[in-house]
Here is the input.
Amino acid sequence: MPIEPWRAAHPAWPEARDTPRADRTDQQVDLRHHGDTEVEPGLADFAVNVRAGTPPEWLADRLRASIADLAGYPDPRPARAAVAARHGRSRSEVLLTAGAAEAFVLLARVLRPRRAVVVHPQFTEPEAALRAAGHEVARHVLTGDFTFDPGAIPEEADLVMIGNPTNPTSVLHPATAISALVRPGRTVVVDEAFMDCVPGETQSVAHLREPGLVVIRSLTKTWGLAGLRAGYLLGEPELVPALAQAQPLWAVSTPALVAVEACCSPAALTEADAWARDLADERHRFAAELDGCGLRAVPGARASFLCVQAPDGLGLRALLRQRGHAVRRGDTFPGLGPDWLRIAVRDRGTDDALLKVLRDLSV
Here is the structure.
């Protein structure tokens, strides 16, 4: 079936850039749809936000060497100490997890919120985990440029979950705005899985010891370890043991522990920061080129992906798949709709290949 020129078929662009589609709190979306389900053999992957060409060889060598220790049970102490040292925390404030996703499940099992609020659009697993544990969830849906006002969160909310930088919008919230959410009797959970995309991690709150503040981090994105499941949680010493009690014994494997320790080293942090600076340059260029193709990115993107609005985004997604490129649909994120797509930022050559297809479709 021939591919019709996309721009010719969809010439109109919504002028109201600051009024994206917002959903109702009760809107049903597939919270368990993730970028990996978009990718199939033969498709260039712009749907998954994991850094390409990873893990680096020095890390792969460490992981291969860890296989020699698989006969023994995992020892989390060195990795826990490394995380604590990285963030200036005590080891009692660190919980190692099988990726960030496990941390959300543990929080949902242990916490007993009366009014849980999830700030959307964002990664959908926090809400999915809360609902699976039987909690009611209210959605605070951002519009416009997807920044937020801490004072707009209901005062009675005793659990607030927010991403920073946020998946899928790529918006980086100021640390002062995150801290302003904290108050007595409230738990604030900040998903910082993409914070290492920000040079210097300038708006991270991982080092703060605010009462009720919980920070979740992941090694999946920067180091290409999605299949290893390596992450951690930072929180109050009173909360961490309760979460550990809800966690299966030896939940984090020996190779994952080796990865956590290695990626918290000064040399690894320097390497990650250099990557983040290169990423920023390519992201800025890529966003401008996408705009020239009729796809307008949320301004101020700071993560390893762009959230773009396009006329008939789902139709464009289908056309791109026909041409060998997978992008992430946006309509499964509460607050977005079928005219939104999430597109990972790759290297210049890979990004240019996608841009060529988009230009061909707009002829």
User: Anything to note?
Assistant: Residues 266-292 form the longest helix (27 residues). Confidence is low (pLDDT under 50) at residues 9-26. The two ends are 18 Å apart (CA to CA).
